[in-house]
Amino acid sequence: MEIVIANEAHFRYAQIICDTIGESAKVRGTGIAKRTPEYILRKLENGNGVIALDGDTFAGFCYIEVWGHEKYVANSGLIVHPDYRGQGLAKKIKKKVFELSRKKFPEAKIFGITTGLAVMKINYELGYKPVTFSELTDDPEFWKGCQTCKNFDILTRTERKMCLCTGMLHDPKAKQNERKREKVNGKAFKRLKSIKEQLFLKKKQK
């Protein structure tokens, strides 16, 4: 199995990608935004997609969407062909597209909305946190993509505050701040430990 950054050489897979996304929506019976072959072709052309291939056979796909002048990035359309499910391929594809997102857009917040528990688990392992929709991009073009979802009326009725999907966010700056806090706390702990050891030695000497 090969998982690579998609390009023009993969144009012939655009239709099967769309068909697989559509069939998955029917089987799951949950909301999933439809995508046209033309839309997928643009993702392949600009290198904003990851495709899994078993030789020449399509196995899975996921793509990047950029919003809010590159302040936000979404990893969307994660799909695995039915013949390759149950093998951990979705996790490998998600990890690959996540790494691609971090490389191409290192300052962007990476987010996603999903109804799938398996995808939520993968996101959590990659460092995503569940958030309210207000913490996601306010770019209207992103939310227009939900119009083909059967749950779109819920989203509009709640003024984009909630839906059946769960919003998840990876904030690189939050991670950096967390590492800084851990470093500072680590130094403070060492100093405190050193002081306690010195006090113990003084008390022992008396």
Description:
It is a single chain. The chain has helices at 14-28, 37-45, 89-104, 117-125, 140-144, 152-157, 172-205; strands at residues 2-5, 49-54, 57-67, 72-80, 109-114, 129-131, 166-170. It is an alpha+beta fold and 206 residues long. Helix 3 (89-104) links the parallel strand 4 (72-80) and strand 5 (109-114). The N and C termini lie far apart (69 Å). The mean pLDDT is 85.
By DSSP, the count of extended strands is 7
How much of the sequence lies in strands comes to 15-25%
- Mean pLDDT across residues: 85
Please tell me how large the radius of gyration is: 22 Å
Spans with pLDDT under 50 lasting ≥5 residues? none
- Report the major sheet: 7 strands, mixed
Assembly category: single chain
Helix % is 40-55%
Encode the helix/strand succession as letters: EHHEEEHEHEHHEH
User: Could you give the distance between the termini?
Assistant: 69 Å
What strand line-up does the widest sheet have?
A: 1-2-3-4-5-7-6
Shape from CA axes?
globular
**Class of secondary structure makeup:** alpha+beta
Short description:
The chain has 206 residues and is of the alpha+beta class.
Key descriptive features of the protein:
46% helix; alpha+beta; 7 helices; 206 residues
List the helices and strands and how they pair.
Elements (H helix, E strand, L loop, with lengths): L1 E4 L8 H15 L8 H9 L3 E6 L2 E11 L4 E9 L8 H16 L4 E6 L2 H9 L3 E3 L8 H5 L7 H6 L8 E5 L1 H34 L1
Parallel strand pairs: 4-5
Antiparallel strand pairs: 1-2, 2-3, 3-4, 5-7, 6-7
